Amino acid sequence: MSRVATPPSTTLSGPPSPTELHTTSVTFTDPFDSNDDADTKKMSPTKRIIKTTTTTITPIKVHQKPVYVIVATSLNPPMGIGYKGELPWPQIKADMAFFRKATSHIAPSISPSSSTTSLPSTQTLNAVVMGRKTWESIPPKFRPLSNRLNVIITRAKSSDFARHILKELRASNTQNGEWSLHEFSSHTKQRLRKPSGANRTSTFLTPPPSTQAQAPILISPSLPSVLTLLSKPTPIILPDPIKAGAPTSAPTSNTSTSISINKIFCIGGAEIYKQILAISSNHHDRPAPDSDTDSNSDGESDGEFDVRILQTQVRAHASLASSTELSKQRSPEPDFECDTFFPDLLPADPSIKSTKWKSLPQERLDEWLDGLPVPQSQNSSGDAPGWYRDDKGGVDIRVVGWERRGARSDSVISLPLNFKPSASTR
Q1: Residue 171's pLDDT band (boundaries 50, 70, 90)?
Q2: What is the per-residue pLDDT for 197?
Q3: Would you call 281 helix, strand, or coil by DSSP?
Q4: 247-261, 376-390, 412-426: which has the minimum mean pLDDT?
Q5: Residue by residue, what is the 3-state secondary structure of 389-410?
Q6: Is the pLDDT of residue 214 over 90?
Q7: pTM as predicted
Q8: What are the backbone angles phi and psi of residue 25, rounded to the nearest 5°?
Q9: CA 130, CA 149: separation in Å to the nearest integer?
Q10: Alpha carbons 267 and 143: distance in angstroms, whole number
Q11: Mean pLDDT for the stretch of residues 402-406
Q12: According to CATH, where is 3.40.430.10 located in the chain?
């Protein structure tokens, strides 16, 4: 009786683990390798050829850039930031100068050449993130804030609001040359489901090349997505500008410009502050959107962000030598009228411990600011230590830095929901 050749058999191992590829074992029986001894008529032992391939994938978590919340608040009433769309106190030149330097300063060691792209037209800028009402509260002659990427979060269609800004810029005598408009998708996540009628497009406005103080503008409907975009380690490559009558999906040319983001600053108003704090605390409940902002409608966070608060504390001027005497003699009446407040309570004194925030030592604050000076006491008679006196405005100010305790933990922050967006900025 003739022998029927046994076909090769294949055996697979169990399902692979999440961190390695599967291992394949192949068992092969050679039907032609028979024993010449006719009496035994048995096949030779099975030959096993085993090939094992194991690939270990080590997850690499890239931390997002920290978001610097820069805000001026009153001590009495606590955490007041606005009144009727304006600052509750007169303009403070020292604080305005500090705000401008802190948000526009680029350390000398930071340069576009250190990025992964070789585009010759890369700009390195800090980003200042604000709500639409905060943008509109800035005097027109100072819009956009120079030498910074101005980021506006609004529920309005970004291209429509961009054209509204373009109309204002063209009417301004301070702007020379033509601005360019660029459109692109607001969301980088492929799995996000696009709700019907949702505004998913962001718009860039770039100034004419002849402009001395570069100040491009980004309008976006989604704060989480725009923070993820700004936090990328690679520069943002802008698509070609939209021409009159040209399709918005026109291909990008080789002459595209790009923007490298150094630091991210949030400058208000209250609703934007609230959303920033909610994102940073890893809390999955998003604050309800209002007429000025829009949260991630899919209920997902685009990343985990550390929040670093740069707070300018403001109080009515008092000719007292110490904060202890000040606390004893201060009138129970508030120093300023406020109707808008910062959506979290920070201690009035850095020495007071908080369950959520810890104050920074001076060397850590210097590190955050790259060595930039803050308004300090002039050591004249009557000045309390650490406070800067503004005689013209009749106020005292000091800058305090705060960082969250256990910033990378899963702690939950409870935020009040009864605050209105602030139209005030500095």
Answers
A1: confident
A2: 45
A3: coil
A4: 412-426
A5: EECCCCEEEEEEEEEECCCCCC
A6: no
A7: 0.72
A8: -115, 130
A9: 11
A10: 14
A11: 85
A12: 67-404
Element (H, E) at 277: helix 270-280
Burial of 357 (0-12, 13-18, 19+ CB in 10 A): buried
Element (H, E) at 133: helix 132-137
Q: From 201, 159, 158, 208, select the one nearest 180 (Cα to Cα).
A: 208
Distance between the two ends of the chain, CA-based, in angstroms?
99
Residue 179 · residue 207 · CB < 8 Å:
yes
Share of the chain above pLDDT 70, in %: 58
Residue length, the chain?
A: 426
* CA dihedral angle for residue 209, residue 215, residue 220, residue 226, rounded to 10 degrees: 110
CB 384, CB 322: distance < 8 Å:
yes
Encoding tokens for residue 265?
Answer: 């600053």
Q: Which one, of 54, 221, 223, 65, lies nearest residue 129 by Cα?
A: 223
Residue 27, both tokens: 């068992």
Q: Is 200 exposed, middle or buried (0-12, 13-18, 19+ CB in 10 A)?
A: middle
67-404: which CATH architecture? 3-Layer(aba) Sandwich (3.40)
Instruction: Enter the DSSP assignment of 20.
Output: B
CB burial string 41-72: b at 16+ within 10 A, e below: eeeeeeeeeeeeeeeeeeeeeeebbbbbbbbb
**Mean of pLDDT over the chain:** 73
Cα-based distances in Å from 302 to 34, 40, 136, 299, 418: 64, 71, 27, 10, 26
The tokens describing 187, both together, are: 């969301």
- The encoded tokens of residue 353 equal 């411990």
Pairing of strands 148-153, 217-220: parallel
Phi/psi at 326 (5° precision): -60, -45
Contact status, residue 301 vs residue 284, Cβ threshold 8 Å: yes
Average confidence (pLDDT) over 124-143:
94
Structure tokens at 128: 């200042």
Q: What would the pLDDT profile of 104-125 be if each residue is shown by its tens digit?
A: 999 887 655 444 444 557 889 9
